[in-house]
Design brief:
- With about 110 residues, this protein is mainly α.
- The chain has one domain.
- The protein has helices at about 15-30, 55-70, 70-85, 95-105, and strands at about 40-45, 90.
- Helix 1 packs across helix 2 (about 55-70) and helix 2 (about 55-70) runs antiparallel to helix 3 (about 70-85).
- The radius of gyration is 14 Å and the shape is globular.
């Protein structure tokens, strides 16, 4: 999407289309890894929003999206990312965020 190659019409439920696409990206990633997640779960490192990510982190998301475009062809690389990049698997959701904001981030200690 950041390279303007998206050809499909998307319905996203986020005011920021890039964040909405990112939500679908991680749902697809986790489903492919036999760990289907509810739509409200996202990686913890994305909690501050996509606008807080560095260019390197955005490039990592671009790479993941490119790999997921052809999952059968890229399954070994996708699985390697799951095994080696922990930040893709440490998840949070809005309820957990509210709890952490109210009582402290005990869930991350």
């Amino acid at each position: 999407m950041r390279k303007n190659t998206l050809q499909k019409k998307l319905d996203v439920f986020s005011p920021n289309i890039l964040e909405g696409v990112c939500e679908y990206l991680f749902m697809d990633f986790h489903a492919l890894m036999n760990n289907e997640i509810f739509y409200s779960y996202q990686p913890l490192y994305l909690r501050g929003g996509i606008q807080t990510l560095s260019e390197l982190e955005l490039c990592e998301l671009d790479e993941l999206a490119e790999l997921l475009a052809e999952p059968d062809k890229n399954i070994a690389q996708i699985d390697h990312l799951r095994e080696t990049n922990e930040k893709l698997s440490v998840l949070t959701n809005n309820t957990q965020n509210i709890y952490d904001d109210t009582f402290g981030s005990t869930s991350r200690k």
